[in-house]
Amino acid sequence: MMISTIKKILLAGIALALNISMANGQHKEATIDIDFTKTYQTISNFGASDAWSCQFVSNWPDAKRNKIADLLFSHDIGADGSPKGIGLSLWRFNIGAGSAQQGEESGIKDEWRRAESFLNTDGSYNWQNQAGQVWFLKAAKKRGVKQFLGFTNSPPVQFTINKRAYASGGKVNIAADQYDNFAAYLSRVVKGVEQVSNVKFDYISPINEPQWDWSDGGQEGCPYNNKEIAGVIKSINKVFMTEKIDSKILVGEAGSINYLFTRGDKPGKGSQVNDFFKPGSANYIGDLPGVSKTIAAHSYFTTSPMATAVKARKTLADSVAAIKGLDYWQSEYCILGDNAGEMDGNKRDLGIDAALYLASVIHTDLTVANASAWQWWTAISAYDYKDGLIYIDKNKTDGNFYTSKMLWAMGNYSRFIKPGAVRVDATISSITSKPLLVSAFKDGKNIVAVIINPNTDEVITGFNTQVRFTTSYLTSQADELKARKIDGSKITIPARSVITLTGAIK
Q1: Is the Cα dihedral 414, 81, 402, 457 positive or negative?
Q2: CATH annotation of 3-38+436-505
Q3: I want to staple 37 with a disulfide (CB 3.0 to 4.6 A). Which of 11, 161, 337, 466 is the partner?
Q4: What's this model's pTM, rounded to 2 decimal places?
Q5: 340: which residues sit within 8 A by CB, 6+ positions away?
Q6: pLDDT tens-digit readout, 460-487
Q7: Where are the domains of the chain?
């Protein structure tokens, strides 16, 4: 590769000159530019949820449950320098509504989708409930996770209108006169969980995907319109202030990102950015001291085709940027639906196909929507969908577990991009049949770059001496965050892979 092909550094930026290895043996050039003077969002965390399998996996033999915890949370390095886990920086704890105690009478047929509650029918609390999930809380903290979020899919059944953890007829399942009781419950849970686990919830997310009906009994769930959401949030804020609970209240968790910036097809349930955070709006809660200055949504059903995904995320980013001080979190995703024929959410895929698709979603949410957090849905799945990072046999006491390449592809981001890192501008000119995707993050003098190569051609890259990349971590069909030292002027990016480069600015 000739030095003249490398672009000169612009301002404080760097350039990486790439050669594309073609089938005929010829090499053609592409260039990555990283400009440190153009900065975007500050990263808050990368996370995943304990719903619902953790309640049973914690009963598995100690060696297996600890290995699963290592895979999710560990920052340890193996003998060859490769990470033992993906180092999640946030863990989501499902605060159950009590369908598990109701058993068959809950109306939720699959017991693996029921959830326990800390609240007893007589109004007392049992902090020994949700013991399996509490075990994973402790395991996460022991391995260095520092951020924790408690979320509810439904208020406790004691407070719902139909006394079940899912709704009737798609209508809200909690009356306004129960908002304060729900808020008091969440306050008690924050304190009680800290007592039994020594883990404090940094965030409480009381409402999940309020746009959906939640009337089929498939899982716990509760619909709300924006006015009802604002009422619940105001009650929780009031109680948290009185009880001196400093866990921040996370708002949104919209079922689709479109509900943040459009009115959508659900009257009274859309335009949530402006409705909740624009001063003067009817449901304004942005000035409440207990509310996180964050709007959250889920990336479901908006990720394909790429042009459509990018357009929606640009609109979302503009909407959030119009509200001073507001951040956006992508707070739940797994691969669902047919995704415009690009990737079917049915059936497990432990291989690289699903992993490359997932990586492209993370990339687009970070680089176009400016998401400051990116969180996966269920970390451990017993189902035949693309909904797990780790898969298990559907067995309450023992079984086998299976890692997916999606786990490791997420690790290409979560293990290396730390809370507080700032995304910097990274662009690429590529002659590959499918575009290479690149993102870059600066943390002090440390620099992390993630490159996704979906092509069947490998890429050989050289980099400018203004930054020194020292290690690469490769996820491919054959590798799982495989570490390799960078000791020359070129790096090989294999076909159909995700690679993270770590180093420092000179």
Answers
A1: positive
A2: 2.60.40
A3: 11
A4: 0.95
A5: 304, 305, 308
A6: 776 655 788 899 999 999 999 999 999 8
A7: 3-38+436-505, 45-416
